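User: I'm curious what two different proteins look like when written out as structure tokens. Can you demonstrate?

Assistant: Sure. I'll show them one after the other, since each token string lines up with its own sequence. Here's the first protein:
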Amino acid sequence: QTVILHHLDQLEGPFADTLLQVLSKDPHPDRFVTTCENDLSSWREDHPDLFHTLVVLRLETIPLRERPEDLPELLETLLDSLPNPPSLMAADKEWIAEQPWRGNVPSLLSWLEYRRLEGPLSVGVELPAQVLTEAEFEALEKTNLKRALAKTGGRISGPRGAARLLGIPATTLTSRLKTLGISPEKSKKAHK
């Protein structure tokens, strides 16, 4: 059994004492993996017994924000590990590269998971090369909303709803449908 304890350097007072008591009793986990963001020198002085119990092998890694050249390969590896990974456009990848990722890889993975669950990414949007008139843009939006409704059988909300597919709140979708005069009921009938 392995227990991962993040931010060891932030563990203070009674929590540190309780952890030391747990580790001194049997049974306890076979392995503890700890992470920290800061140098443990001062923490080590405050908690010497716990430090020597936990820190058997110490690995120092360079933070993700200091190795942007690793990001493209890491991003592909993380995306491959996700079921139904989000698709990223060039603008999305540029945005990701600009972030400090204070939580390093777990922070990046968490963001990708969130985006996967929320639907299509909207950080960067690739627009048609030509400029659209208001009427052309409205027609394009209507077509897109109708496709989303057709794909979801007219369902607006929920995990299989058009709102999730479009990456917008269900209330926003309902409002747009009303404004554009689109009936989700027609999509339900067309889907059957």
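Here's a second, unrelated protein for contrast:
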Amino acid sequence: MGSLLPSDFRRPAVCSPAPSPGQSFGHSLPPRRPAPRSLNDRREMSVSTGLRIIVADLLRRPGAQRDVHIDAPLPDLAAGPVAIPPEFPVHIDATLERIPEGIVVRGEVDVVWASECSRCLEPVEGTLVVGIDELFEPKPIDGETYLLDHDTIDLDQVVRDAVLLELPPAPHCREDCAGLCPTCGADRNLVPCGCVEVDDDPRWEALRSLEL
């Protein structure tokens, strides 16, 4: 066995890792800035969940306008037996406009309502389109305008007020609904019951006793 030379004790070579993208040996590049958001992204950020809308962009620009399209649930909205089902969100198409007094909201609200026929008690549904044209201002007038809360407006009460005024008070399943028989309770849309209605209103008794 021959003698080992000093050169035989050299350390093994160590391979340096390849530089990752954006780096080089000895120094690193500054981090990249995120790409600016598009106009559509900024508009999406300006509309919060539900019916609350941030209008800071409009408040900075007198006369500015912005269209909004919102689908949101409106729970516990009813007028007597007629209600807005929670599974059917209200749909709003509106234009927001900056005026000296505050923010004006003009547009339409589409809702689906559900109830029972006031004559035969069968389930009945319908649709309703209601126009809105309301002012939001920092110091609202009770019953006339709505609150502009710093840079936010809330359409919840606007929609409720507009829809409640237009819901049908006594909906029918159809115009010629015959209803239920007051004597036997049969649905006269399905079967003729043959009952004879008798007018026994006591208010007519005095007239019946008169001999004309």
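A detail about the second structure: The chain has four helices and eleven strands.
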